[in-house]
Amino acid sequence: MTNPNGRFGIHGGQYIPETLMNAVIELEKAYNYYKNDPAFNAELTELFNEYAGRPSRLYYAEKMTNDLGGAKIYLKREDLNHTGAHKINNVLGQALLAKKMGKTRLIAETGAGQHGVATATAAALMGMECVVFMGEEDTVRQALNVYRMRLLGAEVIPVTSGTATLKDAVSEAMREWTSRISDTHYCLGSVMGPHPFPAIVRDFQAVISKEIKEQLLEKQGRLPDAVIACVGGGSNAIGSFYHFIEDKSVRLIGCEAAGRGIDTFETAATVNTGRIGIFHGMKSYFCQDEYGQIAPVYSISAGLDYPGVGPEHAHLYDTGRAEYVAITDDEAVCAFEYLAKTEGIIPAIESAHAVAHAMKLALLWKKNRL
Amino acid sequence: MSNIKKAFANGKAFIAFITCGDPDLNTTAAAVRSACENGADLIELGIPFSDPTAEGTVIQGANIRALAGGITTDKIFDFVRELRKDVKTPMVFMTYANVVFSYGAERFISACRAIEIDGLILPDLPFEEKDEFLPLCRKYGVDLISLIAPTSENRIAMIAKEAEGFLYIVSSLGVTGARSEIKTDIASIVNAIRKNTDIPCAVGFGISTPEQAKKMAAIADGVIVGSAIVKILEEYGKDAPPYIGAYVKSMKDALR
Question: What pLDDT, in 10s, does the model give residues B195-210?
């Protein structure tokens, strides 16, 4: 392969227009420099801790644990970060990197709106211009986040092309980037797109598994039996898995959105129902028809409503290191209500997909596992 | 001489882009014939893709109309096979990497040879990824066309040295679609290319008027027009072919 660094097994790569090639090459060079720069890392850690509120709590869900038969359940509370999700980790990293590269404008796609809000927040903090592309359908189902982005000074552009959801927002952000590159950084929100984005986003999100490992060793003196996370593009999941990949005893389980079921067309479970393809700059698994036309996917959750999955997940699946299960809308809604009533924690509907699987596994495992 | 080179043997080349199946294949056939009769030197046939990330709204619309009409890669192959019985003008496919990859690269590229498609333009396959399809394109004698953009700069020599068929110079930043003005210094891009290869250079993206075509042709070996033609299809639908013929004639006349 011409560019071995951009690959995860056979997945990944840089399938993008020539117009963007120098931009991603420049980004890779800058990232390779700054990721080893102590001053950059110190600045980022300061932002994580003082601005975003890291480290996030690893909460022992005792009532849930007892109710489900004793397998210990811990919840990594990324929802307690500034702006309410894990998205801020990646965005602070990328915004800081963009600023070092002399960029003055951030563009981003968003599904549920969390990544858009995080990008708008970082742009406000760092005095950068911000434009967020959001599927028109998502601007309706996540109207509050549109309001928050605008309040933070960002311009929100509703995308009407295609299915008017996350994939179309990504397409539109890519189109915008090809038209304005010199002052603009595309702050991609997940571990997807062309190299180096999947690696950059993973590295900034890897703080999640780094903290889980430290916190769990302190609380329990051992590694977990399983780490469970929801997967759309897969940024919170790769962040949660990353520092456990070499610990083979730890099962890594990604929960995809099955929508109305993986035997229906109304699903977004890419690994479970998709096929290998090339789209949005990467080779990976995609929901598509026999001619390679990308399928209109469906999930109750705007954040998991994406027809592809990050290339590193595709590779973890190929090698059998991680498992990918499909959780239906109904299961996610049940888990959402259960967690709210049992622990007094209202999760995102995205995360509820992971909670749903944790509940299944806990009932199966009973005691002494975590 | 490769068939694509023939397109540049008749003065400055006019290259017409038409999306297959917009609004149906009969119209596409008539539009292609009309364009060829009126001086088009090369036909770029678009195979629709659900998410064409390099296209502006006009060609996006054509893709949506064609797919909504039930167009598929197999139907397009049958259509070209039929068209080739009387249309001898060089032809290339323009589509996205996944359309080729998902069909099975060898199955797709060998079919191109069988139906006499001379080249392949894939805007999401940059130099770094061309090995995905290049060995198969070589095996079946289909030219894999390279693109050079206003941002290519230090990459021009590398791309030009290995280019086949013709070089597609992207005139402007952004996506396809008419522009009132092309600001890129195309002449210096062409000069940089000329130092590395003598294959023809055609300029596309944003060209719609005879004046623009004339200006670009003074610098390069040909011009590529897509959105302006697709717009005629958008406006006139099945009645578009004679209008396309008249438009192509006005453009080719400007290049003479």
Answer: 999 999 999 999 999 9
For B7, the 3-state DSSP assignment is helix
Spell out which residues of chain A touch residue B159, defining contact as CB-CB under 8 Å: 18
Q: What is the mean pLDDT of chain A?
A: 95
pLDDT of residue B112: 98
Q: At what angle do helices B227-236 and B57-68 cross, to 10 degrees?
A: 50
Q: Which residues of A89-111 are buried (b: 16+ CB within 10 A; e: fewer)?
A: bbbbbbbbbbbbeebebbbbbbb
What pLDDT, on a 0 to 100 scale, did the predictor assign at position A2?
A: 38
| Structural domain containing residue A190 | 4-48+85-202
Same domain, A178 and A124: yes
**pTM attached to this predicted model:** 0.96
A190 and A152 in a common domain: yes
For residue B226, the distance in angstroms to the closest alpha carbon of chain A comes to 17
Q: Are residues A257 and A126 in the same domain?
A: no
ipTM given for this complex: 0.96
Query: How far apart, in Å, do the first and last CA atoms of chain B sit?
Result: 23
Q: Which CATH superfamily is domain B3-255 in?
A: Aldolase class I (3.20.20.70)
Residue of A nearest to B72 (CA): A291
Section B114-142 average pLDDT? 98
